[in-house]
């Protein structure tokens, strides 16, 4: 049970870090954009992040996942981080938070 609580707290801290990373083409962070599909925390505090990009040929397809990995790895509690990119399901505007839609004038 203790691990579950610690994982949840660490997961929330990771989300806070993810909210500091922006898609360079859109003035909204990657979390609010809906690019993060899952954050998994192992018992050893190894992190696996499943994320997508707005398009497969996104100009930051190389650098954005690396930025995510480096920022999460730099957290004291994290022992390792792996970022996996998926296009299943493909990203769509429905995945954006209300906050992101408001920011982009879509509401």
Walkthrough of the structure:
The structure is a single chain. The protein has 107 residues and is α+β, with helices and mostly antiparallel strands. It has helices at residues 2-18, 63-73, 98-103, and strands at 36-41, 46-51, 80-85. The protein has one domain (2-93): Fe-S cluster assembly (FSCA) (GMP Synthetase, Chain A, domain 3, 2-Layer Sandwich). 32% of the residues lie in helices and 17% in strands. The protein has a three-stranded mixed β-sheet with strand order 1-2-3, covered by helices on one side.
Looking at this protein, list some descriptive labels.
single chain; 107 residues; alpha+beta; GMP Synthetase, Chain A, domain 3; three-stranded mixed beta sheet; MIP18-like; FSCA_dom_sf
In short:
With 107 residues, the chain is of the alpha+beta class.
CATH architecture assignment: 2-Layer Sandwich
Total separate domains: 1
CATH class: Alpha Beta
Number of helices: 3
Q: For the largest beta sheet, what order do the strands appear in spatially?
A: 1-2-3
User: Largest beta sheet, briefly?
Assistant: 3 strands, mixed
Q: How do the helices and strands follow one another from N- to C-terminus? A: HEEHEH
Model regions low in confidence, pLDDT < 50 over at least 5 residues: none
Distance between the amino and carboxyl termini? 41 Å
Roughly what fraction of the amino acids lie in strands? 15-25%
Would you tell me which CATH topology applies?
GMP Synthetase, Chain A, domain 3
- Class from helix and strand fractions: alpha+beta
The overall pLDDT average reads: 92
Fraction in helix: 25-40%
Topology, number of strands: 3
> Which value, in Å, is the CA radius of gyration?
14 Å
Q: Which shape, going by the Cα principal axes?
A: globular
């Amino acid at each position: 049970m203790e691990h579950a609580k610690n994982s949840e707290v660490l997961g929330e801290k990771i989300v806070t870090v993810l909210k500091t990373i922006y898609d360079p083409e859109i003035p909204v962070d990657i979390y609010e954009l809906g690019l993060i599909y899952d954050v998994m925390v192992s018992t050893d505090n190894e992190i696996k992040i499943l994320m997508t990009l707005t398009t497969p040929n996104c100009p930051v397809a190389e650098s954005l996942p690396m930025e995510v990995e480096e920022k999460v790895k730099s957290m004291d509690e994290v022992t390792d981080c792996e970022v996996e990119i998926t296009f299943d399901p493909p990203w769509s505007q429905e995945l954006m938070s209300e906050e992101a839609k408001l920011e982009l004038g879509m509401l």
